[in-house]
Automatic annotation (TrEMBL):
Keywords: Carbohydrate metabolism, Lyase, Polysaccharide degradation, Secreted, Signal. It is found in: Secreted. GO terms for biological process: polysaccharide catabolic process. GO terms for molecular function: carbohydrate binding; pectate lyase activity. Residues 1-125 form the CBM6 domain. It comes from the Bacteria. This is Pectate lyase. Belongs to the polysaccharide lyase 1 family. It comes from Lentzea xinjiangensis. GO terms for cellular component: extracellular region.
Length: 135
């Protein structure tokens, strides 16, 4: 299931913009370039378990923009968000997280004052979110 950051209840502490091509949906989150410039998604899992996350991002600088990954208020790990070569070049960083049944918040907190990369969407698989094939 794909969660676009510009779609409610997505949160972008910054601005939803569309000036760099290649994004999905109607825009991306240009977070404020500070440690407070976070992005947050609210995702639904049918069951508790492990979900695979894919964060699509662009970092047009040559310096990584690491961010803390916080699930339901608990810090899980740091994602690296390396430079992608251009703001219009998008990449996906994947990881796994524990999720609860029902609603879960997935937050990206910048680890440095450079802030987040531009963030396009969060893909979530597993944790009961994958439809069971019929039959
Ligand atoms: C540029 C770019 C933004 C980006 C910003 C940054 O201003 O146009 O899309 O968010 O750099 O360094 O974070
Ligand atoms: Ca920014």
């Amino acid at each position: 299931v794909r969660y676009e950051v510009e779609a409610s209840p997505g949160v972008c502490s910054g601005a939803i913009e569309s000036n760099w091509s290649g994004f999905s949906g109607t825009g991306f989150c240009n977070g404020t370039n500070s440690t407070g410039g976070h992005a947050q998604f609210t995702v639904t899992a049918a069951e508790a378990g492990t979900a695979t996350l894919g964060v699509r991002f662009a970092n047009g600088t040559t310096t990584a923009r690491p961010a803390g990954l916080v699930v339901n208020g608990t810090a899980v790990r740091t994602l690296s968000f390396e430079g992608t070569g251009a703001w219009s070049t998008w990449a996906t960083e994947t990881t796994t997280v524990p999720v609860n049944a029902g609603s879960n918040t997935i937050r990206l907190n910048p680890a440095t004052a450079n802030g987040l990369p531009n963030v396009d969407f969060l893909d979530v698989d597993g944790g009961g979110t994958t439809p069971v094939p019929p039959g």
